[in-house]
Amino acid sequence: MEVQVAPLRAWDDFFPGSDRFALPDLKDISKWNNRVVSNLLYYQTNYLMVAAGLISIVGFLSPLNMLIGGTVVVLVFLGFVWMSHNKDILRKMKKQYPTTFVLAIMLSSYFLISYLGDVMVFMFGITLPLLLMFVHASLRLRNIQNKLQNKMEGIGLKKTPMGFILDALEQQEDSINKLADYISKVKE
């Protein structure tokens, strides 16, 4: 399947006034997770642009440490994903507690980077963009177009880079399974 880059969303759609933002319902973690996943898919190109800007600034100020930090985070992420596919306990943790899984990756990366290089580069160049993405995805209310685009991604009509990352974190299987169940019920 060919990877498609999601379109860059207009700034007024990405970051409008406070009327399009609300605190998530902390009592309903699955609904909050659904909002985050939907927004990560829908605004992925905008997030990439913001992250690229921050990474570029930090990379310009400290290029070697940024390269080391980025390499460590990618290797730790790939290691955790590989281990979660081979160890049932990690697979269950990744599925049930995706935030804990990502925090474990970030903490492991932090300790390796503190051993190898500059921790502040890690904090501002890697962690800050991820934190900004998570906060925006948590607070941004979804719209109809957002939901429609995510359904297309979920049923496999298109595949984007963020879709691959979320698949590695096993955060899209529920949507696909729910849609498959719905289609099978409609056929009956």
UniProtKB/TrEMBL annotation:
<keyword id="KW-1003">Cell membrane</keyword>
<dbReference type="GO" id="GO:0005789">
    <property type="term" value="C:endoplasmic reticulum membrane"/>
</dbReference>
<dbReference type="Pfam" id="PF03208">
    <property type="entry name" value="PRA1"/>
</dbReference>
<feature type="transmembrane region" description="Helical">
    <location>
        <begin position="67"/>
        <end position="85"/>
    </location>
</feature>
<protein>
    <recommendedName>
        <fullName>PRA1 family protein</fullName>
    </recommendedName>
</protein>
<dbReference type="GO" id="GO:0005886">
    <property type="term" value="C:plasma membrane"/>
</dbReference>
<feature type="transmembrane region" description="Helical">
    <location>
        <begin position="119"/>
        <end position="139"/>
    </location>
</feature>
<keyword id="KW-0206">Cytoskeleton</keyword>
<dbReference type="GO" id="GO:0005856">
    <property type="term" value="C:cytoskeleton"/>
</dbReference>
<keyword id="KW-0472">Membrane</keyword>
<feature type="transmembrane region" description="Helical">
    <location>
        <begin position="40"/>
        <end position="61"/>
    </location>
</feature>
<keyword id="KW-1133">Transmembrane helix</keyword>
<keyword id="KW-0256">Endoplasmic reticulum</keyword>
<keyword id="KW-0963">Cytoplasm</keyword>
<dbReference type="GO" id="GO:0051051">
    <property type="term" value="P:negative regulation of transport"/>
</dbReference>
<keyword id="KW-0007">Acetylation</keyword>
<feature type="transmembrane region" description="Helical">
    <location>
        <begin position="97"/>
        <end position="113"/>
    </location>
</feature>
<dbReference type="InterPro" id="IPR004895">
    <property type="entry name" value="Prenylated_rab_accept_PRA1"/>
</dbReference>
<comment type="similarity">
    <text>Belongs to the PRA1 family.</text>
</comment>
<keyword id="KW-0812">Transmembrane</keyword>
